[in-house]
């Protein structure tokens, strides 16, 4: 392979690598809609309801929202809500924390990414 071709391939690989995180990022506006579809029957950004309030959830230790009575399983979980833990939680809460109380799953990966991006806006 010529040096020129190798250099073009290296530039293309770097451009692709730089674009990959953006491809995996969710959309907060779509996430707000998905949040309203999947979450608002039990949750609100600012009020504890059937589930805890979500304002400030991103980066927070699981089971610590003030004024909400969590399952002992979630309160003892040692999880911190970040992209990975929220994705796993929304995929299957019971698989992540056996004995927790949430009965909703978000099957589509895109919806989960979008909801997570929306939850991040509630932390700002």
Structural description of this entry:
The model is unreliable at 8-23 (pLDDT under 50). It is built from 6 helices and no strands. The chain is mainly α. The radius of gyration is 18 Å and the shape is globular. The protein has a single domain, classed as Cytochrome c-like domain (Cytochrome Bc1 Complex, Chain D, domain 2). Helices cover 51% and strands 0% of the residues. The protein has helices at 3-24, 28-38, 72-75, 83-91, 93-96, 109-121.
Notable traits:
Cytochrome Bc1 Complex, Chain D, domain 2, 6 helices, mainly alpha, about 120 residues
In short:
By secondary structure, the chain is mainly alpha-helical. The protein has helices at residues 3-24, 28-38, 72-75, 83-91, 93-96, 109-121. Helix 4 packs across helix 6 (109-121).
Judging by the overall fold, what is the CATH architecture? Answer: Orthogonal Bundle
| Highest CATH level, the class | Mainly Alpha
What's the number of domains?
Answer: 1
Q: What would you give as the CATH superfamily?
A: Cytochrome c-like domain
From the helix content, strand content and strand pairing, which structural class follows?
mainly alpha
Number of helices: 6
Major sheet description: none
Give the mean pLDDT. Answer: 88
By DSSP, the count of extended strands is: 0
The sequence of SSEs as H and E is HHHHHH
Note the gap between the termini: 50 Å
């Amino acid at each position: 392979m010529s040096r020129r071709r190798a250099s073009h391939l290296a530039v293309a690989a770097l451009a692709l690598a730089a674009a990959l995180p953006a491809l995996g990022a969710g959309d907060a506006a779509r996430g707000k809609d998905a949040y309203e579809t999947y979450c608002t029957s039990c949750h609100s950004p600012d009020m504890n309801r059937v589930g805890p309030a979500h304002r400030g959830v991103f980066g927070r230790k699981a089971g610590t929202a003030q004024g909400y009575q969590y399952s002992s399983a979630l309160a003892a979980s040692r999880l911190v809500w970040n992209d990975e833990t929220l994705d796993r939680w929304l995929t299957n809460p019971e698989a992540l924390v056996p004995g927790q109380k949430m009965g909703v799953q978000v099957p589509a990966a895109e919806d989960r990414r979008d909801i997570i991006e929306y939850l991040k806006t509630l932390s700002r």
